[in-house]
Amino acid sequence: MPELALLGGDPVRACPFPRWPQGGPADAARLLEVLESGDWGGYPFPNRLAAEVAQRFADLHGARYGCLVANGTIALTAALQASGIRFGDEVIVPAYTWEGTAAAVLAAGGVPIFADIDPDTYCLDPEAARRAITPRTRVLLPVHLAMRFADMDALVRLAVEHDLILIEDCAHAHGGQYKRRGAGSFGDMGCFSFQSSKLMTAGEGGAVITSRLEYFELLQSLVNCGRASLTDQFKRRVVGWNYRITEFQAAILLGQLERLLELAERRSHNAAALSQALQGIPGIRPLPPQPAITREAIYCYVFQYRPTDDRVSRDLFVAALEAEGIPCDGRFYEAVYRSDLFPARAEDFPQLAADRERPLDYRQFDCPVAERAAYREAVWLPQFVLLGDENDVEDIARAVAKVMENRDELAAAGEGRAGLKAMSRAERPRLERQRNY
Ligand SMILES: *Cc1c(COP(=O)(O)O)cnc(C)c1O
Question: What pTM did the predictor assign?
Fold first, then answer.
């Protein structure tokens, strides 16, 4: 009889983990209020609830101003546009992130330049970022990935030293703090997403926070078809778009904001227990603690698959873990320059050819730490598995231990039909995957 559920054995866990997203009667009441008010849209900007959420969200992170927008990709695009980057300017982004981080740069006329990540945090490596700086570099765009912060001490220093704009992609970091400062408050602007999988969600939505009035005014104009902001001290006239959020989304976000820190604490507590349990499993390495984090934001719990031999691939390990009843993913992200969701060519994005001898070819990038994480090492668990109790944590650790202990079975099957089928599922191109986390 096989042990592993992937090969026909009994799974460690048969019951589901807590649901995500979560809403309740207070959300329903607020939605009904918006419905009956007739004040549904994003104009006049900002609407009552949107204005309230934006301000409270900015306050939570220690920024002066907040501007809500339609989604996180738009938040990044608007922030880049407000930063004043010009066609062909280079923006340094980590190689290991959601494709949207780089796509926003292209949308704003910039050129994403990929730099490698730190092997212990999976966030932008400040030294790799330094090496990527050229005379065309205008912006540093670090991402606070999964459950860690980019090294903000080093990145702020680098930005000051080279006179670069610093924009933080905080799509995973709602409520998080680094040395008691809120995510998104270190640089010029911080960008958040409220897409379904994120730590606060209205199905879709996004926010930009900043402490500079000039950026805030520009953002309001960019978001609202070029119209002047309510304060309009800087009198900057720009072409704008409609990037607005609705009052229905804002109504949902108000409730999400009220629950954010309580849920963050629960995740943090369970994550500590999980790290403790995984620590003792040979071949498994939890991410080392990052003492600079004073309040954790855990968008996904990430650990490293580091077996002493390569008989069983990370993707096959993930397929086996998932079959044990633990929602998880290996190719959650790719090295963006290799991803089939990032077919960026100069024919479509002329800035990749502007003032260059040869157009930028993304195949030339080589970020070994990002590639190792993406294709061989990182295992991602969605945050909702940490919203339950200690039994859930024990199940996860038991399932990981079980798969590691039965790697012989898995290695043997890997050669045969069942293993190959499982692997092909785990290695399916991201283009074909539709999942909500
Ligand atoms: C989700 C996400 C985005 C984009 O946000 P959307 O709301 O989906 O447009 C950008 N960057 C990162 C790192 C993300 O995880």
Answer: 0.96
